Amino acid sequence: MDRLGVVGCGVMGAGIAEIGAKGGCDVIVVDAFPDALDKAKGRMAASLAKAEAAGKLSEPADAIIGRITWTTEISALADRQFVTEAIRETLEDKVTLIHQLDEVLADDAIIATNTSSIPVSQLAAASAHPERVLGTHYFNPVPVMPLVEVVSAIQTDPAVADRTHEFCANVLGKKVIRAKDRSGFVVNALLVPYLLDAIRSLENGVASKEDIDEGMVAGCGMPMGPLRLCDMIGLDTMLLVSESLYAEHLELRFAPPALLKRHVEAGMYGRKSGRGFYDYAR
Question: Among residues 117, 188, 201, 273, which one is catalytic?
């Protein structure tokens, strides 16, 4: 497979497009908003320029960028062999997109979702060809983080999962782990309760945000404190993931803390809004 489509060009979508182009794929990126496409182009150009300056690219950055087409038209994906969706983390939006992809793609094209928490079987059920739908969960920043979780729904054809595993490993250069279709998969099912506990510690006055983060970095060797990590992920995304995990497992460790809800209601989403648990506007 060498014709990759990516729908949604936020941080995750643009990162997936970048590693696809690095792997030699012809890539088409689709987003409904032209401004989002322009921002993604700028982020990618900066990312690749930094990598090129550090000697981490096997070819010029311009050659990689030249393999990417940017468009607002989903019909442009008609010849794609593999399409990854990386749009907003809501079931309704993703189901609508899968219906649209069914109308555009060939019957044997693979549809992968980058959902971090929605059961893949719910998304596969929305397709006229559920056997070709599965999850590929990447981690932020995609060009740097080596892992992808390949998640088969109960409807997924095992051959589709095997082809996806091979594509992610051999073309995209990722370390691949297989996960069952349970909300949160492997990584988020373990990570999110830890992050929510950090928010509860702040909410309950256990320590300041700085001391909570420093404690986990200096005391446990974490590369980033949990509250800063929440801000990087996006507190709105954290809330959606937490709600999805809680709905699936009905365990209190997945329930969103009130402090997380208040930040989202106030529009304090983290780095992307300029303020979350920390202030990034300064």
Answer: 188
- Let me know if 116 is a catalytic residue: yes
Whether residue 119 is found in the same domain as residue 234: no
Sign of CA dihedral 161, 163, 164, 169: positive
- What is the C-alpha to C-alpha distance for residues 176 and 52, in angstroms, rounded to an integer? 26
User: What's the pTM?
Assistant: 0.87
From the list 116, 117, 127, 244, the catalytic residue is 116
**Cα distance between residue 221 and residue 217, in whole Å:** 5
- Same-domain pairing of 122 and 229: no
Which residue ranges of the chain lie beneath pLDDT 50?
none
Upper half-sphere CA count for residue 169 (Cβ side, 13 Å): 11
149 catalytic? Reply is: yes
89 catalytic residue (yes or no): no
Q: What's the domain range around 84? A: 3-179
188 is catalytic: yes
The C-alpha atoms of residue 73 and residue 144 are separated, in whole angstroms, by: 29
Which is catalytic among the residues 18, 85, 89, 149? Answer: 149
Q: Of 137, 152, 201, 242, which is the active-site residue?
A: 137
Convert the pLDDT of each residue in 162-188 to its tens digit.
Answer: 999 999 999 999 999 999 999 889 999
